[in-house]
Amino acid sequence: MRKFWALALGFAITILLASPATAHRRDDGTLRILAIGNSFSDDGMEHLPALLENLGVKNVELARLYVGGCSLERHNHFYNNETPAYMFYHSKAGENRWTMQNPVTMQHALAMGKWDIITLQQVSGDSGIYESYIPHLEELIKIVVKMQPQAEIVWHMTWAYSSESPHKDFPRYDRNQQKMFEAIHQCVKNLKKDYKIKTIIPSGTAIQSLRMSAVNNPPMDFTRDGYHLDLGSGRYAAACTWYETLIKPYTHISMMGNTLRPNAGTKVSEEMAPYIHKAAKRAVKRPFKAREIKGKGKGKR
After folding, report:
1. Hey, CA dihedral for 70, 71, 73, 75, is it positive or negative?
2. Greatest extent of the chain over all pairs of C-alpha atoms, in Å
3. Nearest Cα to 1, choosing from 133, 197, 181, 173?
4. For residue 258, which of 203, 298, 207, 204 has the smallest C-alpha distance?
5. In the structure, what pLDDT confidence band is assigned to residue 300 with cuts at 50, 70 and 90?
6. DSSP sequence for 123-187
7. For the residues 71-86, what does the mean pLDDT come to?
8. All residues at 6 or more sequence positions from 146 whose CB lies less than 8 Å from its CB, including other chains
9. 300 exposure class (CB count in 10 Å sphere: 0-12, 13-18, 19+)
């Protein structure tokens, strides 16, 4: 089935995504990033404004459209019906703090000037089930390209559930974290090929590497409930990964050695921080390779 859709859609998707592999900043030098997602994009982006502030970055605008548990299929439904279903979080360049507007349509966010990068993702329970992407990812890509033809479409590769997660969809992966992790990776490899998406935010790989390291906290595994990331260490790791993937290429400032320590959830200690920085950096370099992180040294920017 996957090969059939790849052949059927390949030509159309190639045309739709025939933009450069790297997005371009606006003439004013501001990089603008919009996420169309759910609670997992909230986890990934929550600490990004604070991280920008910590690193002295003033030329990045962030926004995210949030509906809890929202799949690719539901995003398309909301767009087609112009449903004001989303909570909209916005961080203006230079202010580096979230404000919230509720409710809004997807059209509202897509009409806010030109976005340089727009990120997409699948709902967590379906993230390792490739059939759930078809035809919904193609439809959502068409929507984005129609309204924001200059934007680079980026995929957020999310994480497997904790080893003892109570999530209702965990049995679909035999309640096996490694099986879910590998299934997600295979889906992302498939969509990179089938939909010509070039850039991946490897949050799931960074988290999995931390789970293999001395700083892991089983059975929570960097989550707060078995699937959403811990409000402190988990979200901080994801923010470092988002930053290193999307923002470092523009600022030429790495997040390595940053001194942000979120005051929430499991605290990011001075001992833990180097592990997180290295996990994020290595995941960006090798998105499909999770490995144990050694925490010696703070690293360099």
Report:
1. positive
2. 52
3. 133
4. 298
5. very low
6. -GGGTT-GGGGTTHHHHHHHHHHHH-TTSEEEEE---PPPTT---TTGGGGTT-HHHHHHHHHHH
7. 98
8. none
9. exposed
Q: Are 281 and 254 in contact (CB under 8 A)?
A: yes
Pairing of strands 60-66, 86-91: antiparallel
Contacts of 189 (CB under 8 A, 6+ apart): 288
| Triad 131, 8, 76: Cα angle to 5° | 50
- The Cα–Cα gap between 71 and 256 comes to 33
- The dihedrals phi and psi of 255, each to the nearest 5 degrees, come to -85, -5
Nearest C-alpha neighbor of 283 from the set 187, 158, 151 = 158
pTM of the model: 0.91
Q: How far apart are CA 151 and CA 34, in angstroms?
A: 10
CATH architecture, domain defined by 2-285: 3-Layer(aba) Sandwich (3.40)
Per-residue pLDDT of 261-271, as tens digits, reads 999 999 999 99
Per domain, the residue ranges of the chain are: 2-285
